[in-house]
Amino acid sequence: MMSEKNISICCKVSYTLVFMLLFQFSNAQYNFKELDAKLETNKKELGNSVVAMIYKDGKIIYTKKIGEFDEKTQAPIASASKWLTAALVMQFIDEGKLSLDTKIADYLPIYAKYSKKYITIRHCLAHLTGIENKKGLAAILEGGKFETLDEEVNDYAKKEIRANAGTDFYYGSIGLNIAARVVEIIAKKNFEQLMNVKLLRPLNMRNTNFTPLNNRCVNPSGGAVSTAADYTNFLSMILNKGMFNGKRILSEASIEMMQTPQMTSNMIAFTPAAATGFDYGLGEWIQEKDANGKTTVVSSPGLFGTWPLVDICRGYTCIFFVKNNLGEVKSKLYMDLKASIDNEIASTCK
To answer: Using 50, 70 and 90 to split pLDDT, how confident is the model at 325?
Structure first.
């Protein structure tokens, strides 16, 4: 007769084997060979260094590393910074310290002086300020001449008004930087401190920062350095409706509002080629919608090549992390790469 000790050992071994089989099955249910092949075929176009990560059901289900990049490699993420900054601002709204309809002139009186008193936080997060703006690298270079965010944002107030606030969409750096300056004033702390304490640390994004180079001012719209692993933590929080590791980072209401279109196609004055056909919410692109107009995919592609996204219907996040210039051709490639993922992960939306 088998002893109680032997029975106990057998049970433990059996449970372990069952767990291992379940773990194997959960990871074996997806076949990303097509995605693997496309990444290898296009690695030159992607700069010969890329890491792709897919998160679903509380874990990483796919990682592909090519060249010198891995999930912990730091690189500039350009406009993918905007998503982080918008989330920080929405935290202040969750706390009741700010609202989307707050006028920026309440905190930045210089805007009332220069006939811009109707611009709101919503306009800032949705690129609807109406302030004359430069495009792409020209905007980045212009921002490099200032030593503080305060100085740069005050300079925006003196710029020409291109259109009334809320009437046209012009993608750029101005709005998110203004909103970042407003939360600095409210909290009486600088943007980097606020970002670290309120967002990056709670999300375990230890290798992400907005530290400016050469004593220039911080750039909330495009100045972050991050890693694929760090940014995946942020994406998982978005996918999980504001929760990360059991902690609430953003309210469900804020997540939903960020994913709500704030503009219409007839309002577009300028949108980058990579995002043609997308709508815009608050700090993020609405990449796909269903037949009823409900948001299904959100993203925040950066000029240097990083393309993070959340597919709400399929319940996954993905990031293509590349230190390379992002052109229209590459945006089509990223769409094709996403199609390969979608072939493996079924949608739960009706």
So the answer is: low
Q: What is the pLDDT of residues 155-212, one digit of tens each?
A: 999 999 999 999 999 999 999 999 999 999 999 999 999 999 999 999 999 999 999 8
- Using DSSP, state whether 334 is helix, strand or coil: helix
| HSE toward the beta carbon, residue 158, CA cutoff 13 A | 5
Report the alpha-carbon distance of residue 167 to residue 129 in Å, rounded. 8
Buried b (16+ CB within 10 A) or exposed e, 256-276: ebbbebbbeeebbeebbebbe
- Percent of the chain at pLDDT > 70 equals 87
CA 178/CA 204 separation, integer angstroms? 26
- Is the pLDDT at 125 greater than 90? The verdict is yes
> Which residues have C-beta within 8 Å of that of residue 13, sequence separation ≥ 6?
none
Neighbours of 100 (CB within 10 A): 18
Q: Give me 105's structure tokens.
A: 């002139």
Cα 133 from Cα 169, distance rounded (Å): 11
Chain centre distance of CA 222:
11
DSSP secondary structure string, 53-94?
A: EEEETTEEEEEEEETT--TT--EE-GGGHHHHHHHHHHHHHH
Determine if residue 246 is left, alpha or beta; phi over 0 gives left, psi from -120 to 50 gives alpha, anything else beta.
Answer: left
Asked whether 348 and 314 are in contact (CB, 8 A), the reply is yes
No. of helices (H) and no. of strands (E), the chain: 12, 13
Instruction: Check the CA dihedral 194-199-201-206 and report its sign.
Output: negative
Model's pTM, two decimal places? Answer: 0.90
